[in-house]
Amino acid sequence: MSLLVYLLRSSRWILPVAFVASLISGFGNAGLIALINQALGASNDRLAELGWRFLALGVVVLLTRALSQTLFMYLGQRAKAQLRMQTIEHIGTAAYPHLERQGGSSALTVLTQDLDTIVVFFIGLPTLAMQGAVIAGCLVYLAYLSWTILLLALVTIGLAALGFRLAHTRAMKDLRASRRREDDLVRHFRALFDGAKELKLHRARKQAFIDETLAPNVEAVRVQRTRGYVLYAAAASWGNLILFAFIGVTLFVLARLTHVDAHVMSGYAMVFLYMIMPIEGLLSAIPSLGSAKVAFEHIEKVNADMPRELAPDVAPVRSFQSIELEHVTHQYFRDNESEPFTLGPLDLTFAPGEVVFLIGGNGSGKTTLAKLLVGLYTPESGRILLNGEPIDDAQRDRYRHHFSAVFSDFFLFDSLFGMTVHDIDARAQQLLDDLQLTHKVSVRDGVFSTLGLSQGQRKRVALLVAYLEDRPFYVFDEWAADQDPLFKDVFYRRLLPDLKARGKTVLVISHDDRYFALADRSIKLDDGQIVANAQHESGRAAIAHSVSPLQPKASI
């Protein structure tokens, strides 16, 4: 969809009214020039009439100019909000693998820089419309004065437009190229913060990152942007040169050949001198149109690269009878490998109220299996069944609501979004006390007082959030890896039994071999294949005699 089509669809009646007001203002400006030219040779009796016309037309110009600018400002901010929400909705409804592949850089530039470019375009629209109307009105007045000179004026404008078109094409090419580099720059800028510790600890790495990655991209953007805008400036200068050449030819050549009346010639000179500023304004506003077009194309591309998942409204999920992975496989590329890694085929069954440990070496596919299980990834082959029914695209969103997970790369929101738990502050506060975090953080109106915590403490808060979600299936990906020995013991010997006692299924990805015997069952992965899936009778007995640390009033 083009930018113009989007504007027409989204603005309804506002855009036409704003354009009409701009055109009236522009033609009114041309009318003022015509009145001034008439006043120069008018009698005293005629001057009073022309003065009242001048006053009335001036008021119309002022009011329509203010109206058009107000409407275009309103449209700009509304278009920014609409496009921003469209992008947010695309991100929110996109499949997780698409988000993972695309990363956040492109979407962040859409939500900030590209949308601001659209707003700048709207700010420049009144200028484009009004200055265009001024030029059109002046040409109409020139036709009234002399058709011969008008034809020469049209030829002149055609030459100026041709030169501008050539420069504009090359300028747009540079602007598009610089826009693509901006995405890479945003990603690299984020690395300055995300990798701050590593850069501070390695001066040579920091300098190499700045000199070999950041500096070349910054310089390339500078060169391409500068060249693009210089071409626009050159096009504007070309237009002015042609315009002055036309004035010279008209005054010093055509005037002698056609014997045009002196009053007509002075009118022509005045009109053309007045047209210089509108033409410059029009040409200077056109780059914003080009930048807005590039920005809109980028917004459309980013949104198109994030196709929406089917996400029908779902009722709260309370339980399940069985979850099965039947001949499930998934392929993906691991770091520093040219061939895809294959996980599976996997054949697994999970029942309510069991604690399962998923073990194996690094890179064996444990986290990927967990993401397949919870519905973040879609199997390339095989199927996942819920209560014996296969999960398809229409059911995947509802299926995911069976799970609450704390992955190793978890993200912690500062608010308990979407929670409908009764007396949530009191319950969250009790859990904070059980997790020994009340001296660090509190909850008020569902909002955490701070998230400025250590990684281990943040994982405890993430655990609290998962607890409050009260889903039938819990997944913990190396949760205890950042905990001290005390909380490791609490997690394995008290938290897991508490969840089991409440009928929850728990999948724990772990390297803590001293606790493996506590599981009902352990699944071992090696190079993407299940090499063991064993029941632990000792684990059942150990868990049955464990004690939960959670107070009864904190139970969901």
TrEMBL record:
Residues 17-291 form the ABC transmembrane type-1 domain. It is a multi-pass membrane protein. It is found in: Cell membrane. Coiled coil: none annotated. The chain crosses the membrane at residues 12-34, 54-75, 118-143, 149-167, 229-255, 267-286. The keyword Amino-acid biosynthesis does not apply. The keyword Transmembrane applies. Pfam families: ABC_membrane, ABC_tran. Keywords: ATP-binding, Cell inner membrane, Cell membrane, Membrane, Nucleotide-binding, Transmembrane, Transmembrane helix. Residues 323-552 form the ABC transporter domain. This is Cyclic peptide export ABC transporter. It comes from Paraburkholderia edwinii.
